[in-house]
Amino acid sequence: MKFFIDTANLDQITEAQNLGILDGVTTNPSLMAKEGITGDSNIINHYKKICEIVDGDVSAEVISTEFDGMVEEGNHLSKISNQIVVKIPMTKNGVKALKYFSNNNIKTNCTLIFSPGQALLAAKAGANYVSPFIGRLDDISSDGLSLISEIRQIFDNYNFKTEILSASIRHNMHIIDCAKIGSDVVTAPLSSIVGLLNHPLTDSGLKKFLDDHKKAN
Ligand code: G3P
User: Fold this and answer.
1) Which of 16, 123, 143, 201 is the most exposed place for a label (fewest CB within 10 A)?
2) Using a 6 Å CB cutoff, which residues line ligand 1?
3) What is the mean pLDDT of residues 101-112?
């Protein structure tokens, strides 16, 4: 399973990259705004910086909701680096744009997926990734992980090459459950990724090893 980090924060991206487990980055307009990145040229420069840090796919989301605007923005974003994956929202115009970019060999990530039907349409249109939002479904007392299972089944039935990029991760166990289901990718905040390191028996076991070594020496 690939690990992506879900942030536009350069320090966090660098920390995950230095851990040696990072396969890519996802951003969205909210994450860019959180870092205070505004204005076209600053946004483009920020994507360039992210691409320099990480050796993998970097999702950059379009703002336009019209087909022509999505195509124009996506073409512009894709010229930043061959690492850029154009992130397109799941709408009727979005599906048309996914098909356009697929025909033009530009990688896409279809975002805001909340149902198996949406994932199926995005895959049919040639999306490289679909991003089901687990946490936001859980937030409304629905079952985010069931959605991942349903999409997995559909994609396997028909050998779709579209990768399931599980997003809106809220905690470590979301990552483990996605891995058990067979999600191709998980994009998570740094806290959830490094949270996988922790186990109290590792801490107490290491302490005992070091204490015993100290006593004996
Ligand atoms: O990148 C999109 C997705 O991961 C959003 O997560 O936490 O805003 O629901 P969240």
Assistant:
1) 201
2) 6, 26, 28, 133, 135-136, 167-168, 187
3) 98
